[in-house]
Amino acid sequence: MSLAAQTSRSRQTDRSPLEEAREPEGVEPLAPRVGPRIRRAGERSSDAYTWAYESLFMPAWERGIRRRDTLDHLSFLEIAQWMHPVAIEQLQLQELRALLRHAGRHVPYYRELFAKERFDPRGITSVADLAELPVLTRDIVRERYADLVDPASRGLSLKKGTSGSTGEPLKFEYSRESEAWRQATRIRGYRWAGYEPGAPTFYYWALVSRPPSGPKGWKLRLDRALKREVFVDSMVQNEAANLRAVELLRRHKPQVIVAYTQSTALFARFILDRGLRDWDDIPVICGAEAVLPGDRAAIAKAFGPGVFETYGSRETMLMAAECEAHDGMHLSEENLVVEVAPDPEQRESGVTEGSNAPGRSGPVIVTDLHNYAMPFIRYANGDLGTLRARQVCSCGRGLRKLARVDGRRADTMRAKDGTPIPGVVFHVLFSDARKEVVCQFQAVQRRAGDVILRVVPGQDWEQAAFDVYVERFRAYLQGLPLRVEICESIPPAANGKHRTVIVEKTR
Question: What residues form DSSP beta bridges with 203?
Fold first, then answer.
């Protein structure tokens, strides 16, 4: 039985998930070593409303209305993180076996692949055995989309899309059970930074969609009000918008900030340049882009030393998060298998794909353990990463860590008056598309300041739909001339990589 099933069953059997999945003999759970300031699961919040939200409103929403096992999974994750690395590997292997058995029996693409590769899921004895399978690429997902979906899940799964670091939009599906695991993983990772569901939270995020009208709009506003969340569009970086954001920050008094890295670094420098900080330290959870040392220093001066890097993607949501030890990012190993494969030059030197050598940068390969609707097994998400050696962190958690992630950091454009415009806006807006209107894109700001948007039409191309995105781009570009070029293809750079946002340097 998979851990997902065990976790759901634990309420009926009065046995915890860890009792269902016993640790190997002689392996004991680890004790927390660092971070007494972080409230642990089960401890009562000092804030009455936050306690009420977590104890009453959140269970009513997740278990009663949504009928999801998010909170059961969260309880499991809060315990599992302290287990010995050997025990975590065994739990991960158990989930992987269950996923592979399901994929081989029910998903046409994997039935065909396993037969071709003579791969038998029953023979898996280690997570490292995954390297026997070829990598799942974006091109394969597009070409074999229908065959990657479990027929029993058609019409029942959730659908999303992403532009990705290569600028090629990708559509995919995932199960509602996977959504529950993703939400539980996100909450746990954010808790390492001091986040509490229901506590005031300030999202400095990309607001790419207009709030829906009618009942859906009321539902969204009620949900955010109950959670005490406020959202500010981080893509708008002019002085008036920044001053409004500062004022809202002062009024809301958030317990934590969740933000796009690059945009927040720009916002932090704005605050520092004008001497606007008059608040106590606020933890900042950074996402969407890697946190570079200079950005971390600026954010720390503007908001306090609690800067927490996270790593995720739309395909799998939160993959790794920084704990209070600030020494790499713990992988969400109970929900994902993350490999770092050698690059082509390393393979030519005899390094095997999937060897996960610590300290070596390479392509990130991810397997989602709970998405049975459209399994992503050994999926290459287009990022580069570096793993740490497997050892217990000083915080006491047994989860393996990423040392860093290289990729998805877009160049920053400049408006006529020098106002920064985060290039990630192009990724975010195209990711919001419900259909594959655009197959590939590249935005270039020339030395003169004008912007060229090169676009390869997608299979769902509609001029009217595309024009809507162009108008949204124009609003963000604050008067900069924008020219659209429709192309048959966009060739990669000399190094073989696709750059989606290019800012030509002035001489």
Answer: 231, 258
* Tens digit of each residue's pLDDT (9 = 90 or more) over 383-432: 888 999 888 899 999 999 999 886 555 567 888 888 888 777 777 777 65
Q: What amino acid is encoded at 454 in this protein?
A: R
The whole domain housing 478 covers: 433-503
Q: Is 242 helix (H, G, I), strand (E, B) or coil?
A: helix
349: alpha, beta or left? (left if phi > 0; alpha if psi -120 to 50):
alpha
Indicate whether 277 belongs to any domain. yes
Residue 72: which H helix or E strand, with range?
helix 70-80
Tens-place pLDDT, residues 236-253 = 878 899 999 999 999 999
DSSP 453-476: EEEEE-TT--HHHHHHHHHHHHHH
With respect to residue 166, please indicate whether it lies within any of the assigned structural domains.
no
pLDDT in tens, 157-166: 998 887 555 5
Report the 10 Å Cβ neighbour count for 12: 7
Q: Residue 326 region, left (φ>0) first, then alpha (ψ -120 to 50), else beta? A: left
Q: What is the mean pLDDT of the chain?
A: 84
Sheet containing strand 438-445, strands side by side: 482-486, 451-457, 438-445, 501-503
Tell me: do 244 and 322 sit in the same domain. yes
Q: Name residue 307's beta-bridge partners.
A: 284
Residue 22, pLDDT score: 40
The alpha helices in 118-238, defined as continuous H runs, are 138-143, 145-148, 176-191, 214-227
What is the per-residue pLDDT for 189? 97
If asked whether residues 311 and 457 sit together in one domain, one would say no
Question: What gap in Å lies between CA 92 and CA 379, rounded to an integer?
Answer: 17
More confident residue, 116 or 234: 116
pLDDT at 329 over 70: yes
> What is the rounded CA–CA span in Å between residue 227 and residue 245?
19
Q: What is the C-alpha end-to-end distance of the chain, expressed in Å?
A: 63
| DSSP 8-state assignment for residue 66 | S
Based on the fold, state whether residues 392 and 454 are members of the same structural domain. Answer: no
**Is the model's pLDDT at 33 over the cut of 60?**
no
